[in-house]
Amino acid sequence: MGKEETGFWRSLGWREWVVIAAALMLAMGVAAILSPGFRGFISHSATAAWVQALGSVGAIFVAIGVARHQTLESERKAAEQRQHDAATRRIQAQTALKSIRAELESYRSKKLVSMEGIIAALQKGENLPDIPLANNDFQAYRRSAYFLTLLEDYSLGQRIHDMYDDIDTFRMSLAYYVQLRLEYIAAYQANEGRYDSATYLPLKAADQKLTRQAQDAAALYAALLVSLDALLLEVAAACRPSPLQA
Questions:
Q1: 92-129 as b/e, with b when 16 or more CB fall inside 10 Å?
Q2: Residue 246: is its pLDDT beyond 50?
Q3: d(CA 102, CA 93)
Q4: Do the Cβ atoms of 224 and 166 come closer than 8 Å?
Q5: pTM
Q6: Helix residue ranges, H only, 150-196
């Protein structure tokens, strides 16, 4: 029972203590009006001094209570603001993930898969279209790069950055191999019909080197597809709301 009473008094806020003090003062006033003996007691100079002292102590406690209430209120508002900011960052990160997922899936199904024919032609030594080095495909990534830093799983954001770097590296490597193959085809056609060692042997060596580069491009492409598919699964899982968010 004692613990329950102690918990009750501790649970009172400064407003409740003000009400209690006001109720006590009101009771004292009523008693002074109704009881001549009590009027004589409160009119005594010593009583007035004690009342003044108790009033000063009460004012101190009220000031402490008000300050504590203001501190708790500030902490509560700060905690609410932190929760709001965290929720905003989660929404921004989720939006960025969804945009990046759509962009990567589109690039894989359209642009990246179309490179299979280029790699096959490269391996066969066939004529090839030029591949521009400029890349304007990744608009969602450029818009969302900052929001990836807001992900709770920071490593996922880093893997997404790395994947875009790997795609760009592969594309530039493939463009370089295609350019070398085009230059080789032009040199071969210019030398057609001449088989002297001064021209034929360098062309033969260049052809063998290009064949190895085509094999390297095929290996890079296969590894890139595996990594991209694995990353897309991770991003898809991250895009699903958690039970708390749902």
A1: ebbebbbbbbebbeebbeeebeebeebbebbeeeeebe
A2: no
A3: 14
A4: yes
A5: 0.62
A6: 154-190
Contact 234, 155 (CB under 8 A): no
Nearest to 201 by CA among 215, 213, 187, 212: 187
pLDDT recorded at residue 199:
61
Is the Cα dihedral 222, 228, 233, 236 positive or negative? negative
Rounded to whole angstroms, the Cα distance separating 41 from 21 reads: 20
Q: HSE on the CB side for 79, CA within 13 Å? A: 6
Q: Which residue has the higher pLDDT, 130 or 64?
A: 64
Q: How far apart, in whole angstroms, are the C-alpha atoms of residue 192 and residue 220? A: 33
How far is 90 from 246, CA to CA, in rounded Å? Answer: 13
The answer to whether residues 105 and 165 touch, using CB atoms and an 8 Å cutoff, is no
Q: Which residue type is seen at 87? A: A
Q: What DSSP element (H or E) covers 117?
A: helix 113-124
> Which residue shows structure tokens 């807001």?
150
Is it the case that residue 103 has pLDDT exceeding 80? yes
In this structure, what token pair is assigned to residue 174?
Answer: 């493939």
Q: What is the pLDDT of residues 68-95, one digit of tens each?
A: 778 888 888 988 998 888 888 888 888 8
For 213, other C-beta atoms within 10 Å of its C-beta total 19
Residue with tokens 């991003």: 235
Q: Say how far apart CA 44 and CA 33 lie, in whole Å.
A: 16
Three-state secondary structure call for residue 134: coil
